[in-house]
Amino acid sequence: MDRNVRILGAPTDYGANRRGVDMGPSAIRYGGLTSQLESAGVSVTDAGDLTVPHHATRDADAGAENAKHIQEVEEVCTALADAVSTSISDGETPLALGGDHSIAIGSMVGSARDADIGVVWFDAHGDFNTPETSPSGNVHGMPLAAALGIGDFAGVEWANAAGLKEENVAIVGLRDVDRNEAAAIRDTDVTAYTMSDIDERGITEVTQDALDVATSGTDGIHVSLDLDWLDPREAPGVGTPVRGGATYREAHAAMELVAKSDALRSLELVEVNPILDQHNETATLATELAASAFGKRIL
């Protein structure tokens, strides 16, 4: 695969409910990201980390209870959207490193700028809440709804991905979805596959169907990989672990199909929390999965 990859760090934890995920980009780099990507046959440029707002009174000054730190999330996502769009314009494939999953708003907005894109969302959670429906107010549970302009996010320019349509979004591996969130997903044209679907049909069939959804009539796809998609025994260093997730080999098989599609426009790795990790195991796994998504093979 002849690609130039640009790494973009977004070290934020504003969208999450636990501290530490802002160190995810550093942990992923330390886990050997550049060497893994180079082993997949791509050239790599590391553009470093975005400058993100910090303040000592994070929890005491969260802002609106139904969308905590939304101003900080907007600032980071606006900068990330510009960086992702510039990378694509320069002929490079952006690889965004989170940070919590709220950064995906910026990734999708940037990837969908002047293009029609699809999205494949590998996650235990739907991330389809809005400020109105969220039980926690944590924005890392809202990025898909935000990008699609659902509910409170309708007409919110910085958060809406103009070139993204519901019918080109596929969520893979759901196993922990809020009641109102599930209803919202059912009310859209988004395609959702639960872990039960993977149990019944297998990871390759489900992932291929998801890729078909995302690539139909689009210019390319954005892939969002939340490390809590995997079972906690495989990826312990995440903020919201849920038992019963994808196995190591299932995750690699899915990423290998992403590479085989030759449709990857942008990628992100999110929710690695080194404070909760064991020997940087989750961050290292993230680097391996990124390499598979960019074409690394056993033979």
UniProtKB/TrEMBL annotation:
User: What's a single GO CC term here?
Assistant: cytoplasm
Does the record's keyword annotation contain Manganese?
yes
What's noted on cofactor binding?
Answer: Binds 2 manganese ions per subunit.
SUPFAM superfamilies according to UniProt? Arginase/deacetylase
Q: What keywords is this UniProt entry annotated with?
A: Arginine metabolism, Hydrolase, Manganese, Metal-binding
Q: Where is Mn(2+) annotated to bind?
A: 101, 123, 125, 127, 226, 228
Q: What is this protein called?
A: Arginase
Gene (name only): rocF
Query: What family is reported?
Result: Belongs to the arginase family.
One GO term (biological process): urea cycle
| EC code(s) of this entry | 3.5.3.1
Which cofactors are reported in the record for this sequence?
Mn(2+)
What pathway is this protein said to act in by its record?
Nitrogen metabolism; urea cycle; L-ornithine and urea from L-arginine: step 1/1
Q: Which reaction does it catalyse?
A: L-arginine + H2O = urea + L-ornithine
Q: Which CDD domains match?
A: Arginase (cd09989)
An MF annotation (GO) of this entry: manganese ion binding
The organism's place on the tree of life at top rank: Archaea
Q: Which Gene3D superfamilies match?
A: Ureohydrolase domain
Indicate the enzyme's highest-level EC class.
hydrolase
